[in-house]
Design goal:
The protein is of the alpha+beta class and 131 residues long. The chain has one domain: 2-Layer Sandwich (60s Ribosomal Protein L30, Chain: A), CATH 3.30.1330. It contains two helices and seven strands. Strands 1, 2, 3, 4, 5, 6 and 7 form a seven-stranded mixed sheet that branches. Helix 1 runs parallel beside helix 2. The radius of gyration is 14 Å and the shape is globular.
Length: 131
């Protein structure tokens, strides 16, 4: 029997620190699994001004930083899950998502939730393949 694949945590100072007892991301079995990222600016610990669009842009910057900590980028992403406080932001999300991902189109789920931590408007988690 083969030993189980070890779980390795990843952290970037260019993304907000976890606000609970969890890692920004962990790798296991050839994949990286990120925790959900809110649109918190890691320099200030606050949401940027500008509403949904500003928070979503920050989410993508935070996820980019977490991916980079593992030597990855958006082209390695195989699945995302998007949590929206209001599905009325779905069309704006699609535009910002396309900006961030470029021509890469990973699988995605998008759901509206009752609330997000700290009153956030959007949270995204992802799964990426390791190189």
């Amino acid at each position: 029997m083969t030993a189980p694949t070890p779980i390795q945590p990843f952290h970037s100072d260019r993304a907000p620190a976890a606000i609970g007892p969890y890692s920004q991301a962990v790798s296991c079995g050839g994949f990286l699994f990120s925790s959900g990222q809110l649109g918190i600016d890691p320099a200030t610990g606050e949401f940027p001004t500008g509403g949904f669009g500003a928070q979503a842009r920050q989410v993508f910057a935070n996820l980019r930083a977490v991916l980079a900590a593992a030597g990855l980028d958006y082209s390695d992403v195989v699945k995302t899950t998007v949590f929206l406080a209001d599905l009325a932001n779905f069309a704006e999300l699609n535009g910002l998502y396309a900006e961030a991902m470029g021509s890469h189109k990973p699988a995605r789920s998008t759901v509206q939730v009752a609330a997000l931590p700290k009153g956030g408007l959007v949270e995204i988690e992802l799964v990426a393949r390791l190189r």
